[in-house]
Design goal:
The protein is mainly α. The chain has 22 helices and no strands.
């Protein structure tokens, strides 16, 4: 359920807003640049240490912050419903940026909660449950959101989504507070902001780990940034996209997430990253085939199903991998750093994707995205020693923080 709350706001400033802006007549270049409102997801490591150090007045360190952030986030989404991107694009952009900031802050707390609440041996399966809920949240926002938009308009849709997120506060109130050791609550600059990063970077091979996290989902992230305009150019309506791409695809994303979690237990994190990464690469190439088939709901369902299956499996393994790298003394700060780097392709690198698609066409664009997966897979092959170290941590229920 926390995964659902985390996934719900993401596409409200992503694909749903892309559709809103496209219908409002905003240019494709501007829609591509919209990815920049996701910058808070890449910079959240800057304020994440404060959520480790500063205790809120009520309900504990994790639940207290989470309930407060969710309240503000729900309010901002409802306020966003009062604007029209066709007439006030700057105001919509600013509100979307604020939604992204508090959504990223919510992710910080939920990621830290999951890491502190689960033992090492349950991280893989537990992460798959989180991703399962996360994907349901994104599908509710985008699938149901696009269908609602055709019926009642985007502004009413955003109001409904804000109310739905507000209801997620109930989950936070019912959840137990993790029993992880409480950190020093002093706000010394070095200890608060630098120590979590220094602790991670002091490990041998830390920079290679960060580069791998940046590259692993590069092709998939850039490709999915423009899927909504791509579907619309082929001729699909909002309702067709909502029912086929989002709601029909939910079964495959659920299957992929749960299958991924089960296979992680059997194969281990390293082997799962390798096989699931290959599947993600092949699924990206499926968009090239769809471009040649054209307006076919059957072809759309096939491509989306395969892409969702691979994405669910790959994300489950990747989230478990990043969680295994964190030191529980700096859970929020270190996981935020890793997930921020993971989000760079989707936000910064993907922002000029509209310009690239305009310049080279959809076929070459998706081919480039497919080939962009190769560097991450090559790094995974190069560092085969990660396999034994990750498996040692999993089998002995010890942190995998000493990957060297």
């Amino acid at each position: 359920m926390m995964g659902l709350a985390s996934g719900l706001p993401l596409l409200l400033t992503g694909s749903v807003m892309q559709a809103w802006m496209t219908d409002a007549g905003v240019s494709l270049d501007a829609v591509g640049v919209l990815a920049l409102v996701g910058i808070p997801y890449t910079l959240k490591f800057l304020w994440a240490p404060l959520l480790d150090r500063l205790p809120p007045p009520l309900m504990g360190r994790r639940r207290g912050w989470l309930s407060l952030i969710q309240f503000v986030l729900a309010l901002l989404i409802m306020l966003l419903s009062m604007f029209d991107p066709g007439h006030l694009p700057l105001a919509v952009g600013v509100m979307a940026l604020l939604v992204s900031f508090f959504s990223a802050s919510q992710d910080i707390v939920i990621d830290a909660y999951r890491r502190e609440h689960l033992p090492e041996r349950e991280l893989g399966l537990g992460s798959s449950f989180y991703v399962y809920g996360y994907r349901i949240g994104t599908l509710i926002a985008s699938g149901a959101g696009l269908m609602l938009a055709d019926q009642v308009g985007f502004q009413t849709t955003y109001l409904i989504m804000g109310l739905l997120l507000g209801g997620c506060i109930l989950i936070t109130l019912l959840a137990p507070e993790p029993t992880a050791a409480q950190p020093d609550t002093s706000l010394d600059w070095r200890n608060t902001f630098l120590e979590p990063i220094r602790n991670f970077l002091d490990r041998s091979g830390a920079w290679w780990l960060l580069l791998f996290i940046l590259l692993y989902k590069l092709g998939d992230s850039v490709a999915t940034n423009l899927t909504i305009p791509f579907y619309k150019e082929i001729g699909f309506s909002n309702t067709e996209i909502g029912t086929t791409v989002k709601l029909f695809g939910v079964w495959m994303i659920m299957a992929g997430t749960m299958l991924g979690g089960a296979l992680i237990v059997r194969l281990g994190i390293y082997r799962s990253l390798w096989w699931f990464g290959l599947l993600q690469m092949v699924s990206t190439a499926g968009f090239i085939w769809l471009n040649h088939v054209g307006h076919s709901l059957t072809a759309l369902a096939a491509v989306v199903s395969f892409e969702n299956l691979a994405a669910g499996m790959g994300t489950a393994a990747f989230v478990a991998f990043m969680a295994a790298l964190t030191d529980k003394r700096f859970t929020a700060g270190q996981y935020a750093l890793l997930s921020s780097i993971m989000g760079l392709p989707r936000v910064i690198i993907a922002s000029p994707s509209g310009v690239l698609a305009d310049a080279v066409g959809w076929d070459l664009f998706f081919l480039i995205c497919t080939l962009a997966a190769l560097p991450g897979l090559a790094m995974l092959w190069r560092f085969r020693e990660w396999r034994d170290q990750l498996e040692a941590g999993r089998q002995h229920d010890q942190p995998a923080e000493a990957i060297e």
